[in-house]
Amino acid sequence: MRPMTLSATVVASVLAASLSASAQSAFTVGGVTAQPGTIASGEVQVPARGTDPGTVIPFSILNGARPGPVLTLVAGTHGAEYPPILALQRLRASIDPKDLAGTIVMVHTANMPAFLGRAIYYTPGDHKNLNRVFPGRADGTISERIAFAITHEFIERTQYLLDLHCGDANESLRPYLYWTTNAAPPLVESIRQLAAAFGMDHVILDNGRPTDPAASVYLENTAITRGKPALTIESGGMGQTDEESIARIERGVAGVLKHLKMRTVGPDPVEHIVFLGHNQVITSQHTGIFYPLIEKGTTVAEGTLIGRVTDFHGKTVEEVRAPFAGEILYVIGTPPTSKGEPLGFIAAPAKPEEFPKK
């Protein structure tokens, strides 16, 4: 009988060790811990510096009951881009962590000063674009300190990342996303699969992102330069909170969760994608009043008149024309324009040589 007892003990020990190894762990961000199968929320503090009072970054952790990857969802990098912020509110309420494998970290409003200040493009306080200062600096301006906090508190703890955007409050935009094709070769296919899983039918091949982790510039690219698949998503615009733009983000996240095997339900990857290559932000050469003549989603020939800029007495000072044939992905939909600022964004169908080599 004794050998059988010893054998049973060994088997029980092995099973216990196996279950322990496969059990989900608690997950901690910013001093906040979510136990398996629970949701926890908190704020990352961005410290004050000089006369700058600092700010907070609100977040939630949805820690699944079973092991799996860590996916970070970021909204509000630009404060007047509302559909991503509202989509995360709804996703937080609708996802049951008990049915989840892995962990979802939601950054609800990355740029609180811009959100509360209803600011377009730039952060009040330093007039910098948060999505141009990554990975940030601990001793920098408010935008740089926010970027530093996001890099070290969220990006370094994740395995996958979606930076959720839309057209800013002055941009009339058709939905699209970016596939970073000059990422390290092992990442390129993973990012393509994420893009297909998110389900948008317009995808820009972006081969111009910086490759230096210390000068990554963009939030999404900060994850990529650290070996983590990531996407930048665009859905919505003009300061609107329309149901279609919010629901598109919810469906996209559901598709990614299914692709990563974090949930069993969700839409299948999109099958038919319009890949776009050469692209250009069309900027104003003058400060004045913009009159758009083309709507978002319009396909135009080279030289097509997109709009006019007048001075403040009504005199036309600039005719804005398409620099090449392509699709207008967004156009500025409000009158004010400043020299050097965007008036529209155009992209051409991708050519075979623009796709990454397998």
Helices and strands in order:
Elements lengths: L1 H21 L4 E3 L2 E3 L3 E9 L8 E9 L2 E9 L7 H13 L6 E7 L4 H5 L25 H12 L6 E6 L5 E3 L2 E5 L4 H14 L3 E5 L12 H6 L5 E5 L8 H17 L14 E10 L4 E5 L6 E2 L4 E6 L5 E6 L4 E7 L3 E2 L4 E8 L9
Helix pairs in contact: 2-7, 5-7
Structure description:
- With 358 residues, the chain is of the alpha+beta class.
- It folds into two domains: 24-259, Aminopeptidase (3-Layer(aba) Sandwich); 278-354, OB fold (Dihydrolipoamide Acetyltransferase, E2P).
- Helix content is 25%, strand content 31%.
- The chain contains seven helices and 19 strands.
- The chain has helices spanning 2-22, 82-94, 112-116, 142-153, 185-198, 219-224, 243-259, and strands at 27-29, 32-34, 38-46, 55-63, 66-74, 101-107, 160-165, 171-173, 176-180, 202-206, 230-234, 274-283, 288-292, 299-300, 305-310, 316-321, 326-332, 336-337, 342-349.
- The strands form three sheets. Strands 3, 4, 5, 6, 7, 8, 9, 10, 11, 12, 14, 17 and 19 form a 13-stranded mixed sheet that branches. Strands 16-15-13-18 form a four-stranded antiparallel sheet, with no helix packed on it. Strands 1-2 form a two-stranded antiparallel sheet.
- A hairpin with a 2-residue loop joins strand 1 and strand 2 (32-34).
- It is globular and about 65 Å long.
- The termini are far apart.
- Mean pLDDT is 94; it is low at 1-21.
